[in-house]
Backbone:
């Protein structure tokens, strides 16, 4: 029997905010993403890529630096593919007081995920697609991919769920919150050596503070 090729599509914002919504899960910010999803492969399956969709925040230098470190550490694994959208400045007028609220809105990420899922299905780049998101905007892409003959499974980030996506997926959806032990086994080391830059990258101090103290 031929090996089934698997591509994982991670909605980075949905995944990150799933971790962020519960302090217990913040300890897994410094995560080896490919290693995590390797642990979900079944016999006869091969993880060929993890496509991680996100955008670089421009309004918070600290957040930007931490996210950049996370991206660089994961890019050491050639199976990790980073696909970036963008943040746009946005003004919201409060309907009660009339004050202008300055905020930022992520753009393009959903469209990029949908495009990649459909494109990969048409080009038969994998036998199985795994969508890591609870965003119902993924539904059209899942439907098209399935119509082409692609099997699409849905994994929900911790603290996130969509009944519409769950009903559409092939097989039962995976609730990642039930697999915390696999997260623990997939943390990046505190120091990651970046080969091309010949540089040692360390876990951001703020993220390290979320992790329990490890005794020798």
Residues:
């Amino acid at each position: 029997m031929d090996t089934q090729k698997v591509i994982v599509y991670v909605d980075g914002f949905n995944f990150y905010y799933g971790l962020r919504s519960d302090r217990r899960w913040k300890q897994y910010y410094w995560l080896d993403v490919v290693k995590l999803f390797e642990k979900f492969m079944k016999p006869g399956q091969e993880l060929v890529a993890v496509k991680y969709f996100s955008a670089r925040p421009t309004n918070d230098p600290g957040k930007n630096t931490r996210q950049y470190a996370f991206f660089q550490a994961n890019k050491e694994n050639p199976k990790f593919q980073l696909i970036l959208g963008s943040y746009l400045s946005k003004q919201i007028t409060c309907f009660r007081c009339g004050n202008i609220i300055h905020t930022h809105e992520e753009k393009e990420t959903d469209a990029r995920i949908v495009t990649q899922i459909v494109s990969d299905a048409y080009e038969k780049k994998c036998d199985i697609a795994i969508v890591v998101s609870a965003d119902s905007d993924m539904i059209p892409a899942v439907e098209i991919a399935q119509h082409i003959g692609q099997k699409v499974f849905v994994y929900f980030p911790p603290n996130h769920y969509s009944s519409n996506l769950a009903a559409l997926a092939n097989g039962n959806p995976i609730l990642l919150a039930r697999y915390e032990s696999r997260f623990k086994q997939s943390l990046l080391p505190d120091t990651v050596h970046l080969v091309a830059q010949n540089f040692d990258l360390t876990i951001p101090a703020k993220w390290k503070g979320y992790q329990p103290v490890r005794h020798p």
Summary: Residues 18 and 62 are 20 Å apart (CA to CA). The first strand starts at residue 4 and ends at 11. Strands lie at 4-11, 45-54, 80-84, 86-93, 100-107, 128-132, 151-156, 174-175, 191-194, 199-202.
